UniProtKB/TrEMBL annotation:
Region span, Disordered: 1-47, 271-292, 921-983, 1214-1240
Repeat as UniProt keyword: yes
Protein name, UniProt field: BRCT domain-containing protein
Source species: Brassica napus
Residues in BRCT domain copies: 49-137
Chain segments annotated as coiled-coil in the UniProt record: none
Name of a matching Pfam family: TPR_2
Alphabetic keyword roster: Repeat, TPR repeat
Cross-referenced PANTHER family: BRCT DOMAIN-CONTAINING PROTEIN, N-TERMINAL ACETYLTRANSFERASE-RELATED
Ranges annotated as biased composition (Basic and acidic residues): 15-29, 943-958, 973-983
């Protein structure tokens, strides 16, 4: 009995005396070759007419560009073939330049036959039909349509389709792997798939050999322990031919088996590629994730064609790319021992370290690293990888020590330098990381991984020239990847070379096929086209941009963007008639888009940037919007826009039509919508008159003026609501409070009423009452996050020492996750809270906490800036190019946004206060101002804070010891070592810290008056007078550059009181200094003497004269009179009494009212009066004058708590005052308006209320 045979890796499938390696193939006769090429003509075809060699072949081309494409097509047509541009059911053969094109994948999935271009060339050159087998890229269906006229061999009909045979191959591979895994002695996991495939093919080859020797297939199945399906089917066909007297001879079965073997080989090879990762085109290594952009492959011919169309700058001689190294594996795949490779065992361990790092199995990686270092303790690359792994486990100190040691031990290893750069990059030390990458590239100049990492950092740091150079080198090394072309184009664009970027994109487009893109890449291709159009627009080539847009219209799927871009380009090209038609089409799609109306106005010549229009243009605009309103009756924008340009009676008529339905409907945001109209001189009066008439009519008749339609009761409520906000905007707080109280009495359950009343009280100066009202609104709807945030703001603005802040913190964290809730606010980048709480702490003198909050905002902006790093590769890969460039431009001006501007200014003021008042003195001053009860409370609070700090430190130590995950990474958030900012206020040089933030403001907010005021304050304290004056460039020709600081203040707003103060203080300070002795002092004096005549305020005038002239220009302004008085006292201290009298003689004039307005509005603003009071108290040091000013202002601002107005919450009989006292005693606050406490959102006090009609 014969012994069963196993798979080849275990027992050879051949008998020992007759070994035959699989790689060697037996010679085949002509008949075998004919069937292997599947349906090719017999050898008689070699004598066929040349013009009929490929008769019956319907071919399609893929991956070729002209002139090669036309040459191939002509050759095939001359041999009788038929050409089709796209693959369909009639096509028989695909001639492909390289695998993985869209057509290749389509034909492969349809089981078509694919051949290389060389077959056509050989047939054409030799004038005969050449054997197709060695040129096949994919064996599939017959590549020639058979006909009666063709002299072909009668073949046995295929019993199974190609798709079925492919499924057999996959099933056989799976079953063979399962059988192997079930054996006691089994191969290694990494080899099992390869061994299974070899076994299946060897068994099939045994069956073919048996048939060639005229033996039965059954003799083969007896020798194998596991028989594939294909061999079983051959056995069935053989048995069937015997029992049914079939014509299928062993020769025919042998030919069928060979045909099936070709399909098996192709299918199993594809599976092997998928398993080994060759199809995924990923390279292993530290930064292996960056190869996912390899989506478009190109041949060398296409690459040469692309280079002929775009002139790339030459790469430096020392970094000339080598294509031989471009396809190498990861930069970490070749570990060495001081220049020599590691032994095989240790080399495999090193690969395990890299794999463990990529899969975040850090403990496993450490174990492998220690195993290598046990034998090779000085191996630099292993030391570096161990350090990189430790860095991911939050052991940074050890990580840096190991990586530095690794570089020291193997300084010529690009791996060590690459890892060192990754370490710096993880800590956001990008400049140091770039240095490390450049050192790595000196050793391995063509390493793709390092070049990609370097390009990302260059984009992040805006090293645009370096970014262009690196992207060019990447394209040179790997020109068959789309991302490298797009990245090079984007780099040129960012480097202000849009025309070059267009050339690169055009060169890339030249490599694409005629039918590109496939359906699944339409969106990406659309984005590339639109990006190219935007580049042409940016470079001023509007005509070419429009032509490009029209040419690619069928390929653009974003039709809305297409129409918007087309309309804009037509307008820029001076074709407004066509553009206006397109804007009207866009309006029909979205009649509420304000940009479309603006575009239409521009096309019709009816747009003004300033918003000022002549009467003729107003007539035309009115006619335009009348017609549009008839067309788009439901559009809100078409009714709102005319309110900006209409005047007088037309405005009154239009605004009445606009607001009536919204008041009826009850839209709370109506006033916010109309708020911009208050910048026009007469429109607020018209609005007031109109709404007052409406209120009177609705109150008396129940309908609007001139209407018989009865309005619902809520119309009066929302009319009162609007009027309250109107009077608040105009500073008539009595009238505003009267209207809002009436609205609350009408319907007490509307939350918006309490929020608006809180805002009115804030503007009137009673922050305590505003906080109480905001809290009342919050309790009416505990699930509303916006109202909760409004309440927190009001509580922080109230500044009742630490009580309000504590309440604000407790209220703010109601919508955060459980646990460390204050840290949750920080993680959410809640910048408004940081600013508001920082302001509160600053006003209370707690500079540590204030700085902590302000610098937290700076940290948020730093994080936002860092977040762009991940998008440098993602956006290029996903082809979101316009959004990517827009994001980069946004990031470039990120620090000019208001939140950062406010935080930086406040932080600088904190440092100025730290500089002016030493810490001990500041604490004593603040404590001396507190009441005894508050002092006692402060001491208790500090003790509690110290206790909490100690507990936090102990918890931190415990978490450090225990908080480690299975992967080895610490999963516990680090505890803030300075929660109250105590270390921040212990800074040795506050001015140095202030200068750091000042430089950011000067760079990003150069047009802000506050920036230059702070620059003046900082540099005057540092006694850097030229910096305070900011003479930046001394020209040898004798001239001086235009400057910022004092001169910039005068340039931005010369009449501003602070600008005047800075000017006088500067020249008074510099004029009082001693005579110059050093060369630097002499230079400074000469510069200032030369600059002084250029200042118009000081031309031929003394400082006293300039000060008097300033008063003459602003005699009726309170803030200007105060500035004059302060400078008069500074210039001549003996005139202090005169200066104070000048302030007290100021008159608060009544603003002229029209239409019988309620209440009285005066010129003085509350914040200006408070500033003057502080000036009298702290600068003039006259408590009596300050008291007189306080009493006077209390009459003007009766709700102000600062001036203790008779209607403010500080009065003993105020409901808000009683609420405050309860808060100070730690009791539950009683809400104003006589309501009980609201528990869990249940409004007990409202149960008995009814809505009045």
């Amino acid at each position: 009995m014969s012994q069963k045979r196993n798979l080849p890796s275990w027992i050879s499938s051949r008998d020992p005396p007759h070994p035959q390696p699989e790689s060697k193939k037996k010679p085949k006769d002509d008949d075998d070759d004919e069937h292997n090429i599947r349906n090719a003509p017999q050898s008689s075809s070699t004598t066929m007419d040349f013009s009929k060699l490929l008769e019956g072949v319907v071919f399609v081309l893929s991956g070729f560009v002209n002139p090669e494409r036309s040459t191939l097509r002509s050759q095939a047509l001359s041999m009788g073939a038929t050409y089709q541009p796209d693959w369909n059911s009639d096509s028989t053969l695909l001639i492909c330049a390289f695998p993985n094109t869209p057509k290749f994948r389509q034909v492969q999935s349809n089981s078509g036959t694919i051949v290389s271009k060389d077959w056509i060339a050989e047939c054409y050159t030799q004038k005969k039909l050449v054997d197709i087998e060695q040129y096949l890229l994919h064996a599939g269906k017959p590549w020639r349509k058979t006909s009666a006229s063709q002299n072909t061999t009668i073949r046995v009909e295929e019993p199974f389709s190609v798709t079925e045979v492919k499924k057999w191959a996959r099933d056989d591979l799976t079953e063979t792997i399962s059988w192997l895994e079930s054996q006691e002695e089994k191969p290694a996991p990494g080899e099992i798939k390869r061994i299974a495939a070899e076994g299946v093919l060897t068994c099939l080859q045994d069956a073919i050999d048996s048939l060639e020797q005229k033996k039965d297939v059954g003799s083969v199945t007896e020798l194998w322990s596991f028989v594939p399906r294909v061999v079983k089917e051959l056995g069935k066909m053989e048995s069937s031919s015997k029992t049914e007297n079939s014509t299928a001879s062993k020769d025919q079965l042998c030919k069928q088996a060979k045909s099936w073997k070709m399909i098996y080989e192709a299918e199993l090879a594809q599976k092997g590629e998928e398993a080994s990762g060759t199809k995924s085109r990923r390279t292993s290594g530290v930064a292996s994730g960056y190869d996912s952009d390899e989506t478009v492959e190109m041949t060398e011919e296409e690459i040469d064609h692309a280079y002929r169309n775009v002139s790339l700058d030459k790469v430096e001689a020392n970094s000339t790319p080598s294509l031989s190294s471009a396809s190498s594996a990861s930069s970490l795949s070749c570990p060495r021992t001081m220049g020599a490779p590691l032994p095989p065992k240790e080399a495999n361990l090193f690969k395990l370290i890299v794999k463990s790092y990529e899969t975040k199995q850090y403990k496993k990686g450490l174990k492998a690293a220690d195993a290598i270092l046990k034998k090779f303790p000085s191996h630099g690359e292993t030391l570096s990888m161990k350090g990189l792994t430790l860095n991911c486990m939050d052991r940074k100190t050890e990580a840096y020590e190991l990586v530095r040691l690794g570089v020291k031990n193997d300084i010529k290893s690009h791996v060590c330098w690459h890892v060192y750069g990754l370490l710096y990059r993880s800590d956001r030390e990008y400049r140091e990381a770039i240095k490390c990458y450049r050192n790595a590239l000196r050793i391995d100049p063509d390493n793709l991984e390092i070049l990609r990492d370097l390009s990302l950092l260059q984009a992040q740091m805006r090293d645009l020239s370096g970014f262009v150079e690196t992207r060019q080198q990447l394209l040179t090394l790997k020109p068959n990847h789309r991302m490298n072309w797009i990245g090079f184009a984007v780099s040129q664009h960012l480097n202000a070379n849009a025309s070059k970027a267009v050339e690169i994109l055009e060169a890339f487009e030249g490599t694409l096929e005629d039918d590109y893109p496939p359906e699944n890449e339409l969106c990406e291709h659309t984005e590339m086209i639109m990006y190219k159009v935007s580049l042409l627009e940016e470079s001023g080539a509007f005509g070419k941009a429009l032509e490009e847009l029209h040419k690619n219209e069928p390929k653009i799927v974003d039709k809305l963007s297409y129409k918007e871009q087309e309309a804009y380009l037509l307008w820029k090209l001076g074709r407004p008639a066509e553009a206006s038609k397109l804007y009207r089409v866009l309006l029909s799609m979205n009649p509420d888009n304000y940009r479309y109306y603006e575009g239409l106005q521009k096309c019709l010549g009816l747009y003004s940037e300033s918003g000022q229009y002549s009467s003729d243009r107003i007539e035309k605009l009115n006619a335009l919007y009348q017609s549009l309103s008839e067309q788009y009756t439901r559009s809100s924008a078409v009714k709102r826009i005319p309110l900006d340009f209409l005047q007088d009676e037309r405005f009154k008529e239009a605004v009445a039509k606009y607001i009536k339905p919204l008041l009826t409907k009850g839209v709370p945001s109506l006033f916010s919508d109309l708020c911009s109209l208050y910048d026009h001189p007469r429109k607020p009066d018209i609005l007031e008159q109109l709404v007052v008439e409406m209120e009177h009519s609705v109150r008396t008749t129940g309908s609007y003026p001139g209407s018989d339609v009865k309005e619902p009761p809520s119309t009066l409520l929302w009319t009162l609501f609007f009027l309250a906000q109107h009077y608040d905007k105009r500073g008539q707080y009595d009238a505003a409070l009267g209207k809002i109280d009436e609205a609350i009495a009408h319907t007490p359950t509307v939350i918006d009423l309490y929020s608006v009343k809180s805002r009115i009280m804030k503007h009137a100066g009673d922050l305590t009452a505003a906080a109480a009202l905001a809290d009342e609104a919050r309790c009416m709807d505990l699930a509303d996050r916006y109202i909760n945030s409004e309440c927190v703001k009001r509580l922080l603005q109230a500044d009742q020492v630490y009580i309000s802040v504590a309440s604000a913190e407790k209220t703010a964290v109601l919508f955060t996750k459980e646990g460390d809730q204050l840290n949750s606010l920080h993680d959410m980048q809640c910048m408004w809270y940081d600013l508001a709480s920082g302001d509160s702490y600053f006003r209370q003198g707690d500079l540590g906490r204030a700085l902590k909050r302000f610098l937290a905002v700076e940290k948020h902006y730093s994080d936002i800036s860092e977040d762009q790093f991940d998008f440098h590769s993602y956006c290029l890969r996903k082809m979101t190019l316009r959004s990517y460039v827009g994001m980069l431009k946004f990031e470039d001006r990120l620090h000019s946004f208001p939140y950062f501007h406010k935080a930086a200014i406040r932080a600088i003021r904190c440092y100025l206060k730290l500089h002016d008042t030493p810490k001990s003195t500041a604490e004593e001053d603040e404590m001396s101002k507190l009441a005894p009860a508050q002092k006692k409370k402060m001491k208790k609070q500090k003790k509690a804070e110290a206790r909490a700090k100690k507990e936090a430190e102990s918890k931190s130590e415990e978490s450090t010891a225990t908080g480690v995950s299975k992967s080895g990474k610490r999963n516990v958030k680090p505890v803030d070592p300075d929660p109250h900012g105590e270390k921040l206020i212990q800074v040795e040089d506050p001015m140095a810290e202030a200068s750091k933030y000042l430089r950011l403001l000067q760079k990003h907010s150069p047009n802000s008056l506050e920036t230059h005021l702070l620059s003046f304050e900082v540099n005057m304290r540092k006694e850097k007078f030229l910096l305070a004056f900011q003479v930046t460039d001394y020209l040898l020709s004798g001239g001086y550059a235009q400057v910022t600081a004092v001169k910039q203040l005068l340039k931005l707003d010369a009449e501003n009181p602070d600008s005047h103060r800075s000017l006088v203080k500067f020249f008074l300070k510099t004029g009082s200094t001693s005579a110059p002795t050093t060369e630097a002092e002499k230079l400074r004096c000469s510069v200032l003497e030369a600059e002084r005549p250029s200042i118009s305020q000081l031309q031929n005038k003394s400082l006293v004269e300039a000060n008097k002239e300033f008063l003459g220009r602003h005699e009726d302004s309170l803030v200007h009179r105060a500035a004059y008085a302060e400078m008069m006292c500074l210039l001549d201290p003996s005139k202090k009494t005169e200066a104070i009298k000048l302030i007290e003689d100021s008159t608060n004039k009544v603003v002229q009212q029209t239409n019988g307005a309620l209440g009285v509005a005066r010129e003085w603003k509350l914040k200006d009066c408070i500033a003057v009071h502080k000036l009298l108290e702290t600068v003039f040091l006259d408590s009596e004058a300050a008291s007189r000013w306080k009493s006077r202002c209390a009459e003007y601002f009766p709700f102000s708590t600062h001036f203790e107005g008779k209607r403010s919450s500080v009065m003993p009989d105020s409901v808000y005052n009683s609420s405050l006292k309860s808060n100070e005693n730690g009791d539950t606050p009683n809400h104003p308006m006589g309501q009980t406490e609201l528990n869990d959102g249940q409004l007990e006090a409202f149960k008995s209320l009814t809505v009045s009609t």
